[in-house]
Amino acid sequence: MRVVVVGAGIGGLTAALALMRRGFDVQVLEQARELREVGAGLQISPNGNRVLDALGLTPALSRIAAEPAGKKVRLWNTGQTRNLFDLGATSRERYGFPYLTVHRADLHRALIDGVKAMKPDAIKTGVRIDHVEQCGAEVIVRSGDATVAVADVVVGADGVHSQVRQCLIGEDRPSFSGIIAWRGVIEASRLPDHLRQPYGYNWVGPGAHVIHYPMRRGELVNFVGAVEQQGWEVESWSEVGSVEECLSDFKGWHEDVQTLIRSLHTPYRWALMGRETLPRWSYGRVALLGDACHPTLPFLAQGAVMALEDGLVLARCLEAWKSDPELGLQHFERARIDRTSRIVNGSAANAKRFHNPQLAHADGAASYVDEQWSEERVKERYEWLFEYKADTVPL
Hints:
Blueprint: E1 2-6, H1 10-20, E2 25-29, E3 41-44, H2 46-54, H3 58-64, E4 70-75, E5 81-86, H4 89-95, E6 100-103, H5 104-118, E7 123-124, E8 131-135, E9 138-143, E10 146-151, E11 153-156, H6 163-169, E12 175-187, E13 199-205, E14 208-215, E15 220-228, H7 243-249, H8 255-262, E16 268-274, E17 282-283, E18 286-288, H9 303-320, H10 325-354, H11 362-372, H12 375-386
Parallel strand pairs: 1-2, 1-11, 2-7, 4-13, 11-18
Antiparallel strand pairs: 3-6, 4-5, 8-9, 9-10, 12-15, 12-16, 13-14, 14-15, 17-18
Helix pairs in contact: 1-5, 1-9, 2-9, 9-10
């Protein structure tokens, strides 16, 4: 079966590699002229590392990732710390796989290398598609008047601005979430010892929160700061801000947060946009995956992991229904839509939880943190995520 995957991001490359390992003939079309992943850090929870292991990438991940010992919640002004959950050996024992933090570019390169090891010319860059047409048992992919590919199945893994989605259902209508996010990468050597500890931290406060964690074997620290703000709605990962602007957005926060911000070489900012989850992902022999069909706010740290899961489950479905790929794509949609919708909703709920007004004052903040990050609440929010097995889940 010939499969064309549109988009050489994390979801598209995962799908391509999973399909090729099952004997499919795969071509990946990428509109960028060079394979370069923008962005900063990613958290890959055990359910995501289960997928990467199934793709044979565990050795590569062990060379490029960091493995936090745990995650902690800290209060915005006092720095009061509470354990969120243990990771490290605990994650491996409980879920069978680690919880890793990686630079997005490092994971992207590992996936590229995996795909090219299977088929050196699998990825074609500089191809912007603008039309997908189904003709009986074939799908024709066009760029302008030129036919760039003919396939049995086309997978749209081309992100939040998906051209494949536009071909299927028209323009999307994002709405501003009211939150902008700052991101940047810090050389760990620039930070004091206590900010280089092998933990992920989530600072919570009224109207804003900050996340930081180690990457690349602890050599780098990823920084993300999210703040409720109106009047700026640029949805771009490459929009450069300034350290002074970022400091202003977190004025009054703990000195540790100020130190992190002052250590950023180049802070980037982008507006977080909300999109409705699609009620349908597959149309005949064309299907969407990842951000093309279920974009999410980043507050459960599952956006990239959902794309990983999608890619493996899609490959399993097409393998199981080789004689009827349309039915296989329908099974893929049914197997994934409830879980991804729950993640999208849970991420939105976490935004409100991290920014709750009760966090403004010490007395209310302490009781709120005790209530919202109790062991019972944490298990309720995360256990079902980490236990998921994309390699064996019923189709």
